[in-house]
Please model this.
Amino acid sequence: MNFTEKLQTAYTRIKLAKRVLLVGHVSPDADALASISAMAEIADGFGAEVSAYAGQKPDNYYDFIPRNNLVSTAEPVDLKVFDLILILDCGSIARTGLEKRLRALIKAEQDGHIARRPYLMEFDHHEPSETYADLEIRLSNKASTTEIIYNFLKVNGLEISKTLAHCILIGLMTDTGHFLHANASREAMAIASEMLLRGASLPKIVNNTVHNKSFSSLKIWGRALENLCLNEDTGLAVSALTSAEIKTLLSPGNAELDADLFGDIVSFLSSLSGVRVALFLREENDRVKGSLRTNDEKIDVAKIAQKWGGGGHKKAAGFSLAGRLQKTDTGWKVINNV
Model:
Protein backbone atom coordinates (compact mmCIF):
# COMPACT_ATOMS: atom_id res chain seq x y z
CA MET A 1 0.00 0.00 0.00
CA ASN A 2 1.12 3.55 -0.64
CA PHE A 3 0.88 6.30 1.98
CA THR A 4 -2.60 7.46 0.97
CA GLU A 5 -3.97 3.91 0.96
CA LYS A 6 -2.52 3.30 4.43
CA LEU A 7 -4.20 6.44 5.77
CA GLN A 8 -7.50 5.36 4.24
CA THR A 9 -7.17 1.87 5.75
CA ALA A 10 -6.41 3.46 9.13
CA TYR A 11 -9.58 5.54 8.83
CA THR A 12 -11.70 2.43 8.19
CA ARG A 13 -10.15 0.54 11.10
CA ILE A 14 -10.59 3.42 13.55
CA LYS A 15 -14.14 4.08 12.43
CA LEU A 16 -15.18 0.44 12.91
CA ALA A 17 -13.45 -0.06 16.28
CA LYS A 18 -15.67 -0.14 19.38
CA ARG A 19 -12.89 -0.11 21.98
CA VAL A 20 -9.62 1.69 21.24
CA LEU A 21 -6.38 1.85 23.23
CA LEU A 22 -4.00 4.70 22.42
CA VAL A 23 -0.38 4.19 23.48
CA GLY A 24 2.39 6.78 23.70
CA HIS A 25 6.03 6.16 24.56
CA VAL A 26 7.37 5.86 28.10
CA SER A 27 8.18 9.31 29.56
CA PRO A 28 6.02 10.91 26.86
CA ASP A 29 6.82 14.30 25.40
CA ALA A 30 4.40 16.88 24.07
CA ASP A 31 4.22 15.36 20.57
CA ALA A 32 3.30 11.93 21.94
CA LEU A 33 0.61 13.31 24.23
CA ALA A 34 -0.77 15.72 21.63
CA SER A 35 -0.95 12.80 19.18
CA ILE A 36 -2.88 10.73 21.72
CA SER A 37 -5.21 13.66 22.35
CA ALA A 38 -5.86 14.19 18.65
CA MET A 39 -6.59 10.52 17.98
CA ALA A 40 -8.81 10.34 21.08
CA GLU A 41 -10.81 13.24 19.67
CA ILE A 42 -11.15 11.44 16.33
CA ALA A 43 -12.02 7.99 17.75
CA ASP A 44 -14.47 9.49 20.21
CA GLY A 45 -16.16 11.24 17.32
CA PHE A 46 -16.75 7.83 15.75
CA GLY A 47 -18.40 6.62 18.97
CA ALA A 48 -15.55 4.42 20.21
CA GLU A 49 -14.78 3.81 23.88
CA VAL A 50 -11.28 5.27 24.19
CA SER A 51 -8.54 4.48 26.70
CA ALA A 52 -4.96 5.81 26.68
CA TYR A 53 -1.69 4.78 28.28
CA ALA A 54 1.80 6.29 28.55
CA GLY A 55 4.13 5.06 31.27
CA GLN A 56 5.91 7.59 33.49
CA LYS A 57 3.87 10.54 32.26
CA PRO A 58 4.83 13.66 34.26
CA ASP A 59 2.11 14.93 36.58
CA ASN A 60 0.46 18.24 35.71
CA TYR A 61 3.18 19.52 33.34
CA TYR A 62 1.19 18.76 30.17
CA ASP A 63 -2.22 19.78 31.44
CA PHE A 64 -2.43 22.40 28.67
CA ILE A 65 -2.84 19.57 26.15
CA PRO A 66 -6.51 18.69 25.54
CA ARG A 67 -7.66 15.38 27.05
CA ASN A 68 -4.34 14.93 28.88
CA ASN A 69 -6.25 13.58 31.90
CA LEU A 70 -7.37 10.64 29.73
CA VAL A 71 -3.80 9.32 29.58
CA SER A 72 -3.15 6.85 32.40
CA THR A 73 0.24 5.76 33.73
CA ALA A 74 -1.29 2.46 34.88
CA GLU A 75 -1.04 -0.38 32.37
CA PRO A 76 -4.34 -1.63 30.91
CA VAL A 77 -5.49 -4.74 32.73
CA ASP A 78 -6.46 -6.77 29.65
CA LEU A 79 -5.28 -5.87 26.16
CA LYS A 80 -7.57 -8.42 24.52
CA VAL A 81 -10.69 -6.34 25.26
CA PHE A 82 -9.65 -3.76 22.66
CA ASP A 83 -10.52 -3.94 18.97
CA LEU A 84 -7.69 -1.60 18.06
CA ILE A 85 -4.41 -0.62 19.71
CA LEU A 86 -2.99 2.52 18.12
CA ILE A 87 0.66 3.16 18.98
CA LEU A 88 1.81 6.75 18.56
CA ASP A 89 5.29 8.32 18.36
CA CYS A 90 7.02 5.34 19.99
CA GLY A 91 9.88 4.69 17.60
CA SER A 92 10.00 1.01 18.61
CA ILE A 93 7.84 -1.56 20.36
CA ALA A 94 10.21 -1.38 23.35
CA ARG A 95 9.26 2.25 24.01
CA THR A 96 5.57 1.39 24.42
CA GLY A 97 6.21 -0.04 27.88
CA LEU A 98 4.01 -2.94 26.78
CA GLU A 99 6.51 -4.85 24.65
CA LYS A 100 6.27 -8.24 26.39
CA ARG A 101 2.48 -8.17 26.46
CA LEU A 102 2.16 -7.07 22.83
CA ARG A 103 4.62 -9.72 21.62
CA ALA A 104 2.78 -12.34 23.67
CA LEU A 105 -0.50 -11.35 22.00
CA ILE A 106 1.00 -11.61 18.53
CA LYS A 107 2.55 -15.01 19.28
CA ALA A 108 -0.63 -16.34 20.91
CA GLU A 109 -2.60 -15.66 17.74
CA GLN A 110 0.14 -17.09 15.52
CA ASP A 111 0.18 -20.29 17.61
CA GLY A 112 -3.61 -20.56 17.53
CA HIS A 113 -4.04 -20.07 21.28
CA ILE A 114 -6.46 -17.18 20.80
CA ALA A 115 -9.01 -16.68 18.02
CA ARG A 116 -8.41 -12.96 17.68
CA ARG A 117 -6.34 -10.15 19.08
CA PRO A 118 -6.52 -6.38 18.80
CA TYR A 119 -5.52 -4.90 15.46
CA LEU A 120 -2.17 -3.15 15.92
CA MET A 121 -1.62 0.16 14.19
CA GLU A 122 1.33 2.53 14.40
CA PHE A 123 1.68 6.24 13.57
CA ASP A 124 5.29 7.41 13.88
CA HIS A 125 7.92 9.74 12.46
CA HIS A 126 11.04 7.96 13.75
CA GLU A 127 13.38 5.76 11.73
CA PRO A 128 12.15 2.13 11.71
CA SER A 129 13.81 -0.49 13.89
CA GLU A 130 11.43 -3.39 13.14
CA THR A 131 7.97 -4.00 11.73
CA TYR A 132 5.50 -5.49 14.19
CA ALA A 133 2.20 -3.67 13.64
CA ASP A 134 -0.53 -4.86 11.29
CA LEU A 135 -0.54 -1.38 9.77
CA GLU A 136 2.56 0.79 10.03
CA ILE A 137 2.25 4.44 9.03
CA ARG A 138 5.76 5.76 9.48
CA LEU A 139 7.36 8.74 7.77
CA SER A 140 10.73 9.76 9.15
CA ASN A 141 10.77 12.94 7.04
CA LYS A 142 7.83 14.38 9.00
CA ALA A 143 8.58 16.90 11.74
CA SER A 144 6.25 15.30 14.27
CA THR A 145 3.73 12.51 14.67
CA THR A 146 1.01 15.15 14.78
CA GLU A 147 2.04 16.11 11.23
CA ILE A 148 1.18 12.55 10.15
CA ILE A 149 -2.18 12.92 11.90
CA TYR A 150 -2.72 16.11 9.88
CA ASN A 151 -2.15 14.07 6.71
CA PHE A 152 -4.60 11.44 8.02
CA LEU A 153 -7.28 14.10 8.46
CA LYS A 154 -6.66 15.64 5.03
CA VAL A 155 -6.60 12.38 3.09
CA ASN A 156 -9.85 11.21 4.67
CA GLY A 157 -11.66 14.54 4.32
CA LEU A 158 -12.14 15.01 8.07
CA GLU A 159 -12.78 18.43 9.53
CA ILE A 160 -9.94 19.90 11.57
CA SER A 161 -11.58 21.32 14.67
CA LYS A 162 -10.03 23.92 16.96
CA THR A 163 -9.02 21.15 19.38
CA LEU A 164 -7.36 19.09 16.64
CA ALA A 165 -5.59 22.16 15.30
CA HIS A 166 -4.24 22.91 18.78
CA CYS A 167 -2.94 19.33 19.18
CA ILE A 168 -1.27 19.33 15.76
CA LEU A 169 0.45 22.65 16.42
CA ILE A 170 1.70 21.49 19.84
CA GLY A 171 3.47 18.52 18.27
CA LEU A 172 4.93 20.57 15.44
CA MET A 173 6.21 23.34 17.69
CA THR A 174 7.78 21.15 20.36
CA ASP A 175 9.39 18.59 18.04
CA THR A 176 10.98 21.32 15.90
CA GLY A 177 12.27 23.28 18.89
CA HIS A 178 9.72 25.99 18.06
CA PHE A 179 10.82 25.88 14.42
CA LEU A 180 14.52 26.37 15.20
CA HIS A 181 15.64 22.81 14.38
CA ALA A 182 16.57 21.50 10.94
CA ASN A 183 13.35 19.44 10.72
CA ALA A 184 11.25 22.62 10.56
CA SER A 185 10.44 22.07 6.90
CA ARG A 186 8.48 24.35 4.61
CA GLU A 187 5.58 21.89 4.84
CA ALA A 188 5.67 21.92 8.65
CA MET A 189 5.60 25.73 8.66
CA ALA A 190 2.66 25.78 6.23
CA ILE A 191 0.70 23.32 8.37
CA ALA A 192 1.43 25.38 11.48
CA SER A 193 0.10 28.47 9.74
CA GLU A 194 -3.07 26.62 8.77
CA MET A 195 -3.54 25.39 12.35
CA LEU A 196 -3.40 28.98 13.61
CA LEU A 197 -6.09 29.94 11.13
CA ARG A 198 -8.17 27.04 12.43
CA GLY A 199 -8.00 28.30 16.01
CA ALA A 200 -4.87 26.84 17.61
CA SER A 201 -3.60 29.08 20.39
CA LEU A 202 0.02 30.09 19.86
CA PRO A 203 0.24 32.13 23.10
CA LYS A 204 -1.06 29.19 25.15
CA ILE A 205 1.49 26.79 23.66
CA VAL A 206 4.38 29.24 24.09
CA ASN A 207 3.39 30.05 27.67
CA ASN A 208 3.34 26.36 28.55
CA THR A 209 6.48 25.25 26.71
CA VAL A 210 8.83 28.25 26.69
CA HIS A 211 7.77 30.64 29.45
CA ASN A 212 7.17 28.04 32.16
CA LYS A 213 10.72 27.12 33.10
CA SER A 214 11.00 26.22 36.78
CA PHE A 215 13.83 27.08 39.15
CA SER A 216 14.69 23.38 39.25
CA SER A 217 15.04 23.17 35.48
CA LEU A 218 17.38 26.17 35.46
CA LYS A 219 19.59 24.52 38.09
CA ILE A 220 19.67 21.33 36.01
CA TRP A 221 20.68 23.37 32.96
CA GLY A 222 23.50 24.87 35.04
CA ARG A 223 24.79 21.49 36.25
CA ALA A 224 24.58 20.01 32.74
CA LEU A 225 26.76 22.86 31.43
CA GLU A 226 29.13 22.47 34.38
CA ASN A 227 29.54 18.76 33.53
CA LEU A 228 30.11 19.44 29.83
CA CYS A 229 33.21 18.02 28.13
CA LEU A 230 34.27 18.67 24.53
CA ASN A 231 36.68 16.58 22.49
CA GLU A 232 38.06 19.21 20.13
CA ASP A 233 39.58 16.57 17.83
CA THR A 234 36.30 14.72 17.16
CA GLY A 235 33.79 17.49 17.87
CA LEU A 236 31.98 15.29 20.41
CA ALA A 237 30.36 17.20 23.28
CA VAL A 238 29.23 15.09 26.25
CA SER A 239 27.41 15.95 29.44
CA ALA A 240 25.78 13.75 32.06
CA LEU A 241 23.63 13.91 35.16
CA THR A 242 23.30 11.19 37.78
CA SER A 243 19.99 10.53 39.48
CA ALA A 244 21.54 11.79 42.73
CA GLU A 245 22.41 15.11 41.08
CA ILE A 246 18.94 15.48 39.60
CA LYS A 247 17.31 14.70 42.94
CA THR A 248 19.50 17.27 44.70
CA LEU A 249 18.67 19.95 42.14
CA LEU A 250 14.91 19.43 42.28
CA SER A 251 13.00 21.91 44.39
CA PRO A 252 10.92 20.54 47.30
CA GLY A 253 7.60 19.28 45.97
CA ASN A 254 8.90 19.10 42.40
CA ALA A 255 9.62 15.40 42.03
CA GLU A 256 9.31 15.28 38.23
CA LEU A 257 10.56 17.21 35.23
CA ASP A 258 9.09 17.55 31.79
CA ALA A 259 10.35 15.12 29.16
CA ASP A 260 11.34 17.97 26.82
CA LEU A 261 13.91 19.47 29.22
CA PHE A 262 16.71 17.03 28.45
CA GLY A 263 16.02 17.23 24.73
CA ASP A 264 16.33 21.00 24.94
CA ILE A 265 19.68 20.67 26.70
CA VAL A 266 21.23 18.28 24.16
CA SER A 267 19.87 20.36 21.26
CA PHE A 268 21.57 23.43 22.73
CA LEU A 269 24.86 21.53 23.13
CA SER A 270 24.73 20.48 19.48
CA SER A 271 24.52 24.15 18.43
CA LEU A 272 27.77 25.16 20.15
CA SER A 273 30.75 26.16 18.01
CA GLY A 274 33.03 23.23 17.25
CA VAL A 275 30.45 20.57 18.16
CA ARG A 276 29.65 17.93 15.54
CA VAL A 277 27.76 15.54 17.83
CA ALA A 278 26.24 16.17 21.25
CA LEU A 279 25.56 13.34 23.70
CA PHE A 280 23.63 13.85 26.93
CA LEU A 281 23.40 11.00 29.46
CA ARG A 282 21.18 10.80 32.52
CA GLU A 283 20.23 8.16 35.06
CA GLU A 284 16.55 7.30 35.42
CA ASN A 285 14.98 4.28 37.17
CA ASP A 286 18.14 2.11 37.18
CA ARG A 287 18.79 2.90 33.53
CA VAL A 288 20.99 5.31 31.64
CA LYS A 289 19.20 7.26 28.93
CA GLY A 290 21.23 8.79 26.14
CA SER A 291 20.18 11.58 23.78
CA LEU A 292 22.13 12.34 20.61
CA ARG A 293 21.94 15.42 18.37
CA THR A 294 23.88 16.67 15.36
CA ASN A 295 23.70 19.47 12.83
CA ASP A 296 26.33 17.85 10.61
CA GLU A 297 24.84 16.55 7.34
CA LYS A 298 27.51 13.83 7.16
CA ILE A 299 26.57 12.26 10.50
CA ASP A 300 23.60 9.97 11.21
CA VAL A 301 23.07 9.76 14.98
CA ALA A 302 20.23 7.24 14.52
CA LYS A 303 22.81 4.69 13.38
CA ILE A 304 24.89 5.47 16.47
CA ALA A 305 21.86 5.01 18.74
CA GLN A 306 20.99 1.70 17.07
CA LYS A 307 24.30 0.25 18.29
CA TRP A 308 22.84 0.45 21.82
CA GLY A 309 19.35 -0.72 20.90
CA GLY A 310 17.93 2.76 20.33
CA GLY A 311 16.92 4.76 17.30
CA GLY A 312 15.41 7.98 16.09
CA HIS A 313 16.18 10.39 13.27
CA LYS A 314 19.35 11.20 11.38
CA LYS A 315 19.85 14.37 13.43
CA ALA A 316 18.15 13.38 16.70
CA ALA A 317 18.15 9.96 18.35
CA GLY A 318 18.30 8.22 21.68
CA PHE A 319 18.89 4.96 23.53
CA SER A 320 18.45 3.41 26.96
CA LEU A 321 20.78 1.01 28.78
CA ALA A 322 20.44 -0.88 32.05
CA GLY A 323 22.98 0.36 34.57
CA ARG A 324 24.26 3.55 36.11
CA LEU A 325 26.81 6.24 35.34
CA GLN A 326 30.32 6.32 36.71
CA LYS A 327 32.59 9.32 36.24
CA THR A 328 36.13 8.60 35.05
CA ASP A 329 39.19 10.73 34.32
CA THR A 330 38.17 10.93 30.66
CA GLY A 331 34.38 11.21 30.98
CA TRP A 332 31.62 8.75 31.94
CA LYS A 333 30.95 5.07 31.49
CA VAL A 334 27.88 2.88 32.06
CA ILE A 335 28.33 0.11 34.61
CA ASN A 336 26.00 -2.73 35.62
CA ASN A 337 23.75 -2.50 38.66
CA VAL A 338 25.48 -5.33 40.51
Q: What stands out?
A: The longest strand covers residues 277-284. The two ends are 48 Å apart (CA to CA). Residues 64 and 204 are 8 Å apart (CA to CA). The chain has a mean pLDDT of 92.
